[in-house]
Amino acid sequence: MNYNILIGGAAGQGIDTISAVLEKILKRQGFQVFTIRDYMSRVRGGHNFIQIRFGSEQLFSHTEQLDGIVAMNGETVEYHIERLKPDGFVICDKEIQNPDSRCIGLPLKQAAVAAGNSRTAGIAAAGSVLELLGIADTETEAVLGGFFNEELSDQNFKALKEGRKLVEKRKQIQAAAEDTSILINGNEAVALGAVAADCKFYSAYPMTPSTSIMDYLASKMLDAEIVVEQAEDEIAAINMAIGASYAGVRAMTGTSGGGFALKVEALGLSGMLEVPLVIAEVQRPGPTTGLPTRTEQSDLRFVISASQGEFPRMVIALRNVEDAFFQTVRAFNLADKYQLPVILLSDQFLSDTTVTVKPFDLSLVERDKHIAVHNYQEDKPYLRYEVTPTGISPRIIPGKNPGVTVLVDSDEHDESGHITESAEVRVQMVDKRMRKLELLKEELQEPDFFGNEDCEVLLLAWGSAWGPVKEAVDMLNKAGAKGRYGALIFGDIWPLPEKLIREKARNAKKIINVEQNATGQLAAVIAEVTGIFCHDSILKYDGRPMSSQFIYEKVRGKV
Amino acid sequence: MCDVKFNVSETAWCPGCGDLNIIECLKSALEQSGKQPHEVLVVGGIGQAAKTAQYINTNGFCGLHGRSLPPAAAAKIVNKELTVVVNTGDGDSYGEGGNHFIHNIRRNVDITHFVHDNQIYGLTKGQASPTTGIGHITGVQTAGSMNEPLNPLLLALALGAGFVARAFSGDKEHLTKIMLEAIRYKGYALVDILQPCVSFNKINTFQWYSKRVYKLEEGYDNTDRLKAMEKAMEWGERIPLGILYKTEKQTFNEKFDFLKGDKPLVDRETSLEKVKGYINEFV
């Protein structure tokens, strides 16, 4: 059993705080939480909402039907009441008039005043929700202490208790187990992954929805000793990261599609200089400004082919919060090992969605920096671009090897890094760089497979669609819907791992790609690499995330 | 100590190019600085001047056009033990890289910026640069360059740069001295080096510069920013050479304990114990 509560209002009405407090209380009671944020690109006004789904089982998707609505204004009721279950409720201030019998108008403003702060009405509403559902809040003081100073914490605590007094219990919900989880979103997981990987330099230009990676790292700048530099522009941001990486630290930049477009020339620089680089690209709907605060998966073909010329790169689509953490660590290791750019492809859905997960196990974190040392008196002369069987040349840190210098050049260069126009050396160097892919391909991770091993209907998806598709496949197989269902969800996406897709496609009668874009970009990449074509597509490009329910219904409609 | 030297190899520059003198002076200045080749990083963007790193035995980073300052600044931030010297042209520094020029003055990382300013685009064969004079006819500016030339020294002074100088490739002794002072200066140091382009600038020739340049008189007070601005505006019949302005300023690295401490950032590591604490904050 799980529940779905929507908190809505205008920007500036505090819905972020209300939901953050409510989520944390639920988590501390032992519930699993999956929360999506739907907000407009404005600082005041408009309509924003947050949906908190919670239950005892782990959750992988949001869902459409609502058990309750907390309405901070009248619009919230109008916009969402259609999705409210017949036995659902709306908690709102009594001044909000709505004829629907499920609306419970409460003196929230008075409760806030009684708590000593008129701005705590939303927290009073959260108290009413907890009371209605019969959920205890044993750790609320500690939770509030994490958000507010002592005075505000005290006022909010009182408001929550006042809110409880306003309603009668309707249910008695209890989590099945004690809380052992952390509550975290995709961008925080990427940022934590970077810290765990010993990233020492993050330069970026603020761009929604990637900015919270920079925010988190900046909050740890002094304690973790990480340079977090807000660059003058996207181009400076990536060129700074490349300079820092050349000088020997792990470096990263992050942005969304528009910023990535500006960084493209320097993406090629990382490839040409063979300087390791990790780039987080948190997608939003484009082209151009598009829908700044919303979600889409429409930059896949862009990032795998961006830049003039040819050079090896790796693209990893982040599938969920845990994956975001561990793949970020892995991205640094791969970037260092193969001396190339690694792009982490995320999106607003993953970046802003908070979920409960097991605390990340740091015993799984390895820091493999692949730094060589060179003695100029004993070793043969150092060649930054020495031609080797793997294509990987030993990389040393400038300044750390007396008598040895490191020369890198964006012009085509010879083994020593000097400019060349030799036809022979050109071919040798292109081959050397591209050869690195052969080894990289051997350590690609195959996509996750869910569902029936002998599936007849095979869904193909990538990145953040992982959760909703996984849940949808479960629903389809449980519903006894005709046909047997399975899904492959790609994380490593460029180079494309080919083994499992070839194997599963052989038996599938119908292959359907499920993507948040208008053109079916994963399907196109798979067709290009493997010659396997999808028979049908489920594509969503309205800027709103796909739920498992949405996918379930679309698949049922096609099979 | 090791016996490796700042050797200069054969260049692809035209005979008579100002860059030939500049690289020779750079070599002298680096030698006099007491640094060794592996302790020096020469950074360039794209252009003839930007190739300096190709020809001198130091660490070298030849990046993208206009983008010499961002990687140079970052390299210094993460390894304060490197002496970072940017050598690149007027187009790279003031045109394509104009935004980085502005903001790295504000950032004040301890790097040195030698702009080989020949008032023309050399590598692309003679189009106007940001410092080309009005009326200068080129293959693109067929009726003469119409845009007000950029005044790099005045701009740098306005932005609060702590070390602003001009030199001339034709006076090697003076140029070497200024280069050495710029390298030793703690903070962002700009030296706009006037140089002839023998192939593509037939107006601002060696003779043209020689007739006009003069050294700042002894007793010139280079701590007076307004006076420096006045000197920076002097252009035409007389062009002042020397350190127009010099003042002490806190550098980027000095603003952070962990960047100014004994170990450079490149030698520091974040412990996993620390990361564990951060993860626990999400409980």
TrEMBL record, chain A:
Domain of life: Bacteria
Domain Pyruvate flavodoxin/ferredoxin oxidoreductase pyrimidine binding per the UniProt entry, residue ranges: 193-431
Name recorded for this polypeptide: 2-oxoglutarate oxidoreductase subunit KorA
Protein's organism: Ruminiclostridium hungatei
EC number(s) on file: 1.2.-.-
Record domain Pyruvate:ferredoxin oxidoreductase core: where: 456-532
GO MF entry, a single one: oxidoreductase activity, acting on the aldehyde or oxo group of donors
Main EC class the enzyme belongs to: oxidoreductase
Domain Pyruvate/ketoisovalerate oxidoreductase catalytic: 11-164
Pfam family, one: PFOR_II
UniProtKB/TrEMBL annotation, chain B:
Thiamine pyrophosphate enzyme TPP-binding domain boundaries: 50-193
Domain of life of the organism encoding this protein: Bacteria
Kinase in keyword set: no
Signal sequence interval, chain numbering: none
The enzyme's E.C. designation: 1.2.-.-
Biological process according to GO: cellular respiration
Gene Ontology MF: a single term: metal ion binding
UniProt cofactor(s): Mg(2+); thiamine diphosphate; [4Fe-4S] cluster
Pfam family of the protein (one): PFO_beta_C
Domain Pyruvate ferredoxin oxidoreductase beta subunit C-terminal: 197-260
Enzyme class: oxidoreductase
Entry keyword set: Iron, Iron-sulfur, Magnesium, Metal-binding, Oxidoreductase, Thiamine pyrophosphate
NCBIfam families: PorB_KorB (TIGR02177)
Official protein name in the record: 2-oxoglutarate oxidoreductase subunit KorB
Lineage: Bacteria, Bacillati, Bacillota, Clostridia, Eubacteriales
